[in-house]
Amino acid sequence: MATEIEIKRILDAPGYARLRAHLDTLVAPERQEQVNHYLDLPNAALRQNGAMLRLRRVGDRLILTLKARANVSNGVLRAQELERELTSADERAFWLQQPLRWTQAVARLGDWLELTGLAVLADRDEPLREVGSTANLRCVYRLPHGVDAWQQPLTLELDHTRYPGDVDRLELECEHADAVALQPVLEAWLTAQGVATVPATETKYAQFLRLAAIA
After folding, report:
1. What percent of the chain has pLDDT over 90?
2. Which one, of 82, 97, 114, lies nearest residue 3 by Cα?
3. 3-state secondary structure of 179
4. CATH superfamily label, 2-211
5. What residue segments make up the domains of the chain, in order of their start?
6. Is the pLDDT of residue 112 over 60?
7. E-strand spans in 21-91?
């Protein structure tokens, strides 16, 4: 199981526009129009066990992600993450079917359940349901020489996410194994560009649940 470690900074609209314009002068972005569909069992059994199951559409691509034990502290996310792109017609048809029963999904998830501590839910014979979705425009910037004193390749992701109730969240993400050491360098670089940010205090999924008023 992979451990995701990611810097997450929240921007206001002027800061987002300024940062995006500056990054556009450094490297051409990869634009991804994403729709994130969040799945759970009745009574929020996955969430109650500290997990998130997401089916993401990026154009014609479908990506299945299972995250567990997510925690955001001082703008750094740590989570256990298992992810795979659904490339075969069989896999795509299976995860898009309605209704999708959890007992069938268990066979497809295999040892993911063991690795995320969700094996206790393996015998539940209930349908998976979509609890909601978000739309996200992601601009991915791959910087071969990093920023300022951090002269190593970096990938910065600028997200403009639309949540329930027409609420927008503007966020900068940077996944990196040494996120704690990188964060002050990145903050100083952002300040030098005139971009103010604040550390994120929750994951996108947590914000979705809060804004959608899902208990």
Report:
1. 85
2. 82
3. helix
4. Hypothetical Protein Pfu-838710-001 (2.40.320.10)
5. 2-211
6. yes
7. 30-40, 51-58, 61-73, 76-85
Spell out the alpha helix ranges (H) of 45-170. 45-48, 89-96, 102-109, 112-115
Tokens of 138: 């992601």
Nearest Cα residue to 79 out of 186, 202, 214, 207:
202
Indicate the pLDDT class of residue 162, thresholds 50, 70 and 90: very high
Q: How far from the centroid of its chain's Cα atoms is residue 92's Cα?
A: 20
Token pair 């795979």 is at which residue?
A: 84
Alpha-carbon Rg for the chain, nearest whole angstrom, is 18
Tell me, what's the pLDDT at 215? Answer: 56
Neighbours of 37 (CB within 10 A): 17
Query: What type of residue sits at position 187?
Result: E
| pLDDT beyond 80 at 158 | yes
